[in-house]
Each structure stands twice: as structure tokens, then as C-alpha cells.
Amino acid sequence: MTGPKDLTHLLSEESKSRQPSALKTAFKYFADPNIVFLGGGLPLSDYFPWNKITAESPAAPFRNGIGAVPQSADEKVVIELGKHSSENGHHEDIPLSRSLQYGYTEGQPELINFIKEHTKLVHKIPYDGWDIIATIGNTQSWDATLRTFCTRGDVILVEDYSFSSALETANAQGVIQFPVPVDDFGIIPEKLESILNDWVGPKPKLLYTIPTGQNPTGSSLSPERRKAIYKLAQDHDFIIIEDEPYYYLQMDTYTEDASSRAGKAVHSHKEFLEALVTSFISLDVDGRVIRLDSFSKVIAPGSRMGWIVAQKPLLERFVRIHEVTIQTASGFTQSLINGTLVRWGQEGYLDWLIGLRQEYTHKRDVAIDAVNKYFPKQVSQFTPPVAGMFFTVKFDASKHPKFESEFGKDPLKVENALYEQGLENGALLIPGSWFKAKGQTNPPQKDHRVPGSENIIFFRGTYAAVPLDKLVIGLERFGQAVTQQFGL
């Protein structure tokens, strides 16, 4: 393997101007027993009011399921984390005296090492010189990414519909988002190529994508599309921002035949790893992929613990911005998640992820069964997702009986009518227009939209947020709202 390409020419002026924090450079001497460290405003750990924290988690391999309450001692793991190393039960535990102190902007070494081993196991990154650093989740990672590469007025590429908070983060920084057409299977490489070939002026530095279980569409890019998009990144010299909080929520392909579903589940670690879709970072021979990863969807959103995978020279720029913004990820979180993971081990963590796959496959199946049953097929269209927490149902607004007479051929008025009818019926799905990327270049590009899509609207639902019985009730109610609105 060889090292990454030099991509520092794509950094923003803000990022290029950042210097190491002078105070932070002295912290490397903090743990040196030969140095009396009088240089930092670090309180003595004696004054931290927690001497020990204790947590309990299910024990791998989770034979009764990841949601089962442990019934016996061998079904659970008790994690006791003391203030000092001598008080901890595992040699890889992070003592509270260190995790609750300033320092370690890159992340506590024990947890970082576990995540790096996990990354090697799953992604097999094909170049030398990559690394990871800790973040407080993908939302913060994306904000730091924009500041690291973009200046106000720059244009980036985004999926035609994308996570609304990510779009607003770019809006607030004055970064223009140019929408790339998508279909039921994500970004259309041919459309992206046409956009780039027709581009006037400086080309975008970044493509922001949620390639697996995309939010809001639920789509997932195939390995073939990922390879084509990566080749375009090489040809047009941009960086792919791979935002992947849903990566491990992959699932078996949906089938209407419920009797055949059980035999399709993956069980072994080998089966699980082979079933995972190709990641952009695993294709990255240049070091032009920045992967945003997180424990939010696989452990807990409130843990606020994520990480960035990228080539080392680019990560160094992230560390500089983190030193003067987030400082470091939460010490409690790092000690607790690390304490759990080192007790599970790499194999136990894979067992946990396999359990998640099984749970989300079942949730997805219940949701799509309900859509099949309650949504009128004359006006509804959907592609069952193979990853993530979301599904979308499309509607042809032109088939609404009031499309011309009252709505003036405006699809958004049909969308709003469906939304209001759903609320009246007691069910809420999110209108697709809420996720629309609306940026444009100057001069404007030609229209690259997919022909025939002008009157198509969609709604986003999730099968993750409510118990299965309420999920079915909610979809039945919204299906009735569609039937009422379209006069069926």
C-alpha cells in the first residue's frame, strides 16, 4: 500500500491559517513523572466528585436478543470504573482521573485503539497513513468539515434530498449546496458526471452523501455506483464526505413472503461482514474520502460520541479546530463506552451489530407489510429500504382530483393536503420537500433533473421510533388519509 495524495490545496483559508494551540503543545508533558507540571489550568482529580461509576449491560453474544433484560449473572456485564487505574477491573479501562480531565483532543487512546481495530476489520482501508479522531457525533463532525474545507460562497455537491440539519449547517456558513439527482437507489452517477462536465468556474471541493440508509429517502448506493462516484472524485479532484450513522443498520432484502424471511438472516461474523455494502473508505486509494461515523444509532444518540476516519494530514486540521471548540468528547462517555466494548471484545461488538440487523430487518418488514396493505397502489410507489431507519412512499400529485382545479398544478399543495389529512387522521409522516436541497450556481446550470419527476412527491416515515403495534396503526391511518385525499 502507498500513502495518500496531498489534498491540502482543498483546505479552506480558515483551516490553512490555524496554528497549533500553544497551550495544547505543553500537554504532552502532563503525564511525564519527571516533570512537575505547572503549565495548565487542570484541577486535581481529587476534587472530581465521582470516585466510581457503575453500569450494567447485556453480555455477548446476546443469545436472548439485544433488547432482553439479563436474567442471570452470566447474561450481563457489570462495568465499574474507578478514579484511578488500580481501581478498574480491566486493563484497558479509562480511569476517571484521566477521562474527566482536559486533554486528549484526538480521543482517549484505549477507545481510539478499539475503533481503529474495528475499522480495519470492517473497511480494510487500502492506503497507509489513515487515522481516526474522536468527535461528539456526526452533526458536529459535519460542521467542522465545512469549516475545514469551505469558505463563504463556495459550492458543494449534495444529494437532491438530504438531512435538513446538514443542509442548514451549510446555509448558516454561506456554503451553497448544489443538488445532485437521485433515484430509489441513491445518487445517479451519470447525472453527477454530466453536472461536473458542464460546470463553469471552480469545481466543488466536496460531495456530501449519506450513502447507506439515506436520510430521508432510505436509499442505499450499490457497490457499482460507489465505484463510479469515486472515479468521478478522482477525475474532478473533490473529496467525498461519507456520512454513515446508519451503516450498520443494514438488513436483508424485503420479501412479501413472510415464511421465507427467517432463513435469510445472517448469523456468523463472516456472514455479517460479507453482507455489509462496500464503503467509500474501503475504495479509497487516494485518501480523498472523509468518513463520519458515530455510536448514535448503534449505542445511544445521547452518548454524543463519534469519530472521523481520514488521512492523517487532513485529520490534523480537524484537531486544530477541535482544540478551540469542542476540546474533546465527553469523558464519561469515553470511559463508559470503552468499558463496555473492551468487555464485549471485537467479536462481541459484532454480535451486538448482528442483533441490531435482525431487529431492524423485522421493524422494516412490519412497516413495509403495513404500507403494502393500507396504501392505495393506484397512486403509491415505494422501494423497500435495505438499510437505515427510514422508508419513503411516493405519490403522483397529478392524480389528485383537485390538482388542476384547486391546486393550480402545484405538487407542494397536494403534499400539504396529504400532510394535513394525515394529522387529522392521527398520523404524521414528514413531507419530502422539507429535505430539498435548493442551492444553485451562478450562472445557473442546465436542468439535470430526472425526466417525469416534476409532479412526484414523497413522505418519509420511520420504523425506529415507536412500538410495532403503533407503527402499524399509524401507517393504516396515513393510508386512509391518502385514500381520502385521492378520492379512492
From TrEMBL:
Family in the record: Belongs to the class-I pyridoxal-phosphate-dependent aminotransferase family.
Cited PANTHER family: AMINOTRANSFERASE, AROMATIC_AMINOADIPATE AMINOTRANSFERASE 1
Protein name, entry field: aromatic-amino-acid transaminase
Source lineage: Eukaryota, Fungi, Dikarya, Ascomycota, Saccharomycotina
Keyword match Transferase: yes
GO MF annotation list: 2-aminoadipate transaminase activity; aromatic-amino-acid transaminase activity; pyridoxal phosphate binding
Chief localisation class: cytoplasm
Species for this entry: Wickerhamomyces anomalus (strain ATCC 58044 / CBS 1984 / NCYC 433 / NRRL Y-366-8) (Yeast)
Catalyzed reaction equations: an aromatic L-alpha-amino acid + 2-oxoglutarate = an aromatic oxo-acid + L-glutamate
Gene Ontology terms: biological process: aromatic amino acid family catabolic process; L-phenylalanine biosynthetic process; lysine biosynthetic process via aminoadipic acid; tyrosine biosynthetic process
Keyword Transferase recorded: yes
Cofactor(s) for this UniProt protein: pyridoxal 5'-phosphate
Subcellular location: Cytoplasm
GO cellular component: cytoplasm
Cited Gene3D superfamilies: Type I PLP-dependent aspartate aminotransferase-like (Major domain)
Class of the enzyme per the UniProt entry, highest EC level: transferase
Domain Aminotransferase class I/classII large, residue spans: 100-437
Keywords annotated in UniProt: Aminotransferase, Cytoplasm, Pyridoxal phosphate, Transferase
EC numbers, comma separated: 2.6.1.57
Organism superkingdom: Eukaryota
